[in-house]
Structure formats: C-alpha cells, structure tokens
Sequence to fold (237 residues):
Amino acid sequence: MMANKVVDPTTINWSLISPVTKKLTANKVSSGSINSLTNTAQSNNVFITSTKKQSSPADLKDLKKWVPYKGLIDPNAGSTSSNKLTRMHQVNGVFHGPSDASNMFLGSQRANNSASDSHLHAVEVPIKQGVSNGYACYYDVQPEFYSVPPYLTKRMEAAHNDSGTSANGKTKVLEFLNWVDQACPDSFNCDVTWFKPTGKMDEYRIAQTQYINVEADKLKSTDNHPLAFRDEIVKIP
Fold:
C-alpha cells in the first residue's frame, strides 16, 4: 500500500486480521550490501519492539575529504561556510540503528527533519508513537543510490564544463560523482509493517505493508549555491 505517512496502528481494524505465528529477532538491525567508496549499505531493516536513546551520526568514508570542495552544501543553506548536507540515519538510533557509515546517507535538513513530510515527521515519529503504544513494527529502508539529486548533478556539470576547469579538475569532478553515487540518493524507500501482539508467544496480527518514498533532496525552491563547487574546482591546476 503506497502512503505519504505511516499509519497510526490504533486506527487499524485488527479484528479483521487473523493471528499468525512468526518468530523474529527484535531490535537487531540487518544491513544489505556495502558500497565500497562510502561504506553505506544498500538497505537496513529491523523488527522494532522497543526504542532507545538516540545515537550520533557517523561520518561516511571520505566525507571530510569532499567538504572543502563545497559540493556538499545543503541547497537550502544561507551560507557556504558550515551548512553541509545532513548525515541521515537509515534506521534511526532510537530504533536501534547503529551509528556507523553503513546506516547513513546524505540529504538536506528539510528531508531529514524540518519539513512536514520529512523522514522524521512522515515515518519516524509515527513509528515511535506506535511502538510506545505496545505495537511492534518491521521497518526496512532502501536509499536510491546511483540516482543523484538533480541539484548535485547541475553543480557537477557546471564545474566540469567550465572553460577554466583543468584536466585535473575534470578528473576530480568525476571522482566526486562516483562518491556521490554511493552517498547522496535522490530519495529513499521506507517499508513499514505494523504487528499487534496477541499475548501468545511469537503470535501477531500483521497489517498490510506501507510503502513510503521520501525525497532526500527537499528544496525550499532552488539550489542556493549552484556554483560553489565549480568555484573550488577551477582552482585546481
């Protein structure tokens, strides 16, 4: 079932769903295959029965290397000095997601938590509330890697095609593109399935899975810094 926001499990008519026995390991995150340039994972999933304290996000492999080139500035940021893209958890630390690169990707702050349809408000807050009300949740996140946000593509095109960009500069742009492919998805898919325990061991009523796609590059309007990356690349001799 496609949706824009995770459904409140208290609104589901559970009496229409027959109970089934299903043995699952709770609160242990499993990762998909790992991207070599960033150490990000193709997916992460977890069966959530409780929450915990938030964990701090980790750096992606070589993230600090790319920050000085100013290609990773949040498109909505007011300045180029410190507002880089947000390190976003695939599975939030509250849901037992690890604080390492395998559980991360980069997106705008609006995509992470400030927009009403952000990862936080459309997915994470409803899951946290449902779990606090005694429901369990199977949660699977798949970033759309190798599908670069359009504003990043335009930044790289501006740098690569500028008449002042040297051969070494063009090589650096292509190196950045390969890294961005594994760090900056244009969206990510969140699959959410609610489970209602019946009180018997490993027995649940299981609701229909919801499929929610969240943009990772939410813009207020347009990119505020389309040429910042180019201005750094043209300095390469």
The beta strands are 20-21, 30-31, 44-48, 86-89, 104-107, 136-143, 187-197, 203-206, 210-215.
